[in-house]
Amino acid sequence: MDILIQPDDKLLKTVLQRPEAATPDMDVLLTSIFDEITKSGDKAVRRYTTTFDKVSLKELKVTSEEFDAAEKALPESLKTAIRAAAANIERFHTPQLSEEQVTETIPGVICRRRSVPINAVGLYVPGGTAPLFSTVLMLGIPAKIANCPVRILCTPPASDGSIHPAILFAAQVAGIPTVFKIGGAQAIAAMAIGTETIPKVDKLFGPGNSYVTAAKQFAQRLGVAIDMPAGPSEVLVAADDSVSETFIAADLLAQAEHGTDSQVIFLTDSEKLVKKVQQAISDQLTVLPRAAIARKALKKSAALVLPVERWAAVINDYAPEHVILMGKYEEELIDLIVNAGSVFLGEYTAESFGDYASGTNHTLPTAGFARAYSGVSVDTFVKKITYQRVSAEGLKNLGPTVITMAEAESLKAHANAISVRLDTLKN
Fold it and tell me: Residue 321 catalytic?
């Protein structure tokens, strides 16, 4: 990790830049993938799976037998843990489904607003170096609560063409009936376009690497909505010297082990604590199976020593996916943080709780998009439709207002649509 003592704003901006993982010809590659899948459907999906994932697949769709085998393969302890996490996620998300809102804005004018589920949603769950079955719960459960009619999931296959049993079991628990063995940009393209086997969806969900994120944004050009630009994972840990360096190091490494393109930031007002955290990181790396991945991520990360008066500004400017606040400054910072995907408060609140089982959603905006985006929720799976009904009384009460405004905008036909109705009330 780079260590910066009292850096100025210009240096901070440079250090807090996200790692650039995209290649210059990304758009060219994505255009090719989307074009080929448009032309050749499943055949192109299989070809790209062979090219990128080194797997030749006969069937893209997971069979019922594979679902059954997955459930039998998992130890009961893990199945119990997945069910417990699912229960908490469902408990937290269910109240998010809002009731229909009805308002009489003026006598005779009734306006309504209700939530309608998105018809077809495509959920993406990364595979790669770790089976993220927790993401299956985070996406599938809100989609089920929203009652989206078509819910499909794509996830990369292992080298033998199988899907990790925990992913398939989690899909069953989350109410996802259809899973496909495809990953990467080709999975996003297949769901955005539709093939002989894979349904075309209306909205895409889920995190992924830079290629997946870019493919989701590319799909928007085709009129397919996305949840957010969710790319490589990141965390900012803010703590003073009253907090254990062991806790801080563990939280930083928990995010660093996600991938070599992850970024972790440590913010403190104590230079001595930075040195302690560095040693704790070194000690903990010796026992982590994914230490090599974490070390590469740490090379793109930083520790910042700044007075607490600057912390809120730094956090809001960086707009991290995860913020962990620990120590004596927690309360004064809580309300000042307005740009973050999710905030974790207190020394016992490891970010891992949010990743798995506290109930909040872990599919969150990254790369600074927390300035404008929220994390996934039930709202992400519904659209809001408004309705209005105007009675004769409402026509009399509100009609003249609309006529005045329309004529002021030189939109005579708009005004006339009201006038012809008012005329009928004079007879």
Answer: yes
